UniProtKB/TrEMBL annotation:
Identification of the protein by name: Uncharacterized protein
Family: Belongs to the CoA-transferase III family.
A GO molecular-function annotation: catalytic activity
Highest classification ranks of the organism: Eukaryota, Fungi, Dikarya, Basidiomycota, Agaricomycotina
Pfam entry (one): CoA_transf_3
Amino acid sequence: MSSYSVPHESAKLLEHGIIHNPLHHGLKGSEPLPAEISETLPYVKYEGSDLPLIPINWRFAESLASLKGFQACMLNVLLKRKYGMDYQEIVINTNHAQLFFQSLLTIVVDPDGDAITNIMFDDVHIAKYFPVLEKNGAFIGAYNAFCTNIYRAGDGRYFHLHGDINPTKAQQALGLSPSLSVSNSNEARNIYAEKVSTFTGEELETLMNDKHGVSGTVCHSTEEYLSSEHGKANAHAGLYELFHIPNPKQPPTWWDAVDNRDADPRRPLFGLKVIDLTRIIAGATIGRELAELGASILRITSPNVTDISSINIDVGWGKWNAYLDLKKEEDREQLRGLMLESDVVIDGYRPHIMEKWGFGKDDVLRMCEGRKKGIVYAREDCYGWNGPYSGRSGWQQISDGACGVSLKFGRAMGVDEPVTPVFPNSDCCTGISGATGILHALIQRAEKGGSYVVDVALNYYSQWLVRSCGTYPVDVWDDLWTRYGKPVFHHDDNMQITIPAFLKMLKDKAPELYDESYFEKRHSVPLGVDLRVVKPILGFPGNRVSLGYNVGVRPNGVDEPRWPENLLSENIC
């Protein structure tokens, strides 16, 4: 154990688990990684504490640090091809990297004034800055909150029930009244536990997903998932799949220059126009990652669609935010016009929702096939884009349960039951993967022309975590767990229980994770306030690249749905 090093293992995982992973070299029609990407490996440097710091058996630190390293490698390829730059040294501190999946949990709004903290799923306290957009009370009260949790079915299997962002549907599917009143969390859990126990796991899969369109999954072992029909159908997928759509009308090209200015590698993606059709964490993180590199992001949502304001405070940096109602033809026509001016479209809604309005993958490819440059269409879902469950909706906890991540975490704590491993890790890591896939697509478009489709999924990340990253060696895990007093959580401890408990443990036992140098004070002009936030993870000692955001975070619908003439305009009026 004394020789274990998180930075060293992160570098190994980047090289062998990602760059040289056969899954990333052109299986089943997916584009292989750029030929020269191996040359960039020596330029990614890792530093940080040798021993792991977060008492979770899965190697989350190494996973995230290696994914950011993958992004760094792809960025170096782009910098050299587009700007003629030498490869840049890029430093990743693995302690700092672990704040990437805690960024939502560590934000302080107005640190020198109101100092609002603990904003996750708490729209009420930030209503001064972000109007409450959650229309269904999904996180209000214990009864609704514990609709999202793991319960034991009648056949002994564990089932992850999920309230989505409208728990009424799951409650009604179980035969429960949406208006039940409970006095505490235990009472709420007992109500769901009793109902779930009247079904088998398989019956619940059918009831929730097929009959009611509600997210939910039996919590499998990793072996069960990988040997299942769905696991086998997606076994060829790496962290993302990238497909080329050739078109002789669309020659190789980068994106358009801005205002006749010379391209500036300090903001590598400046001038890139991205339409963001996303909600919640994973898909929205893709756009924020591109914005950090200089891209211009226009997020389109609807005043009639529920949203979670507290999450937008984290994932909304660098994005203008406009309303369009896709039920109206005139608004759909506006969105078509915006897409025709764009380089990238990100679709983060559940499968087939955008097809309903004419903005699915095939719709957008057809829309853009007559223009002179191709489009990059990136779509993110839970289960992946192949196999019998490809049309299902899902969330991070669903992916963790389906792929065996939750069960292995529970067993590592000595209980033979699944436990969701606390942080929105698979959401955040899927966001990094999706953004890296888009960088890859832009590189390929500049080489071969045409359009590109980036398929990314929570399960693609989760199965990579299981197969390529893995858990800590037994002695390393035992030492890590012991340092925290061997805490044990159970299947029905949802994230509203585990997150506060873990944050307290980490602040007591691992204060080095929260070093002030990993944070910055960032001003939002639209909000008129500073926020204390996690700094970008990639460090550039040579200062040839500057990470940040062109515009500040803002509430939904405050901008006009059009591309501004000046891509540095704070607001679109």
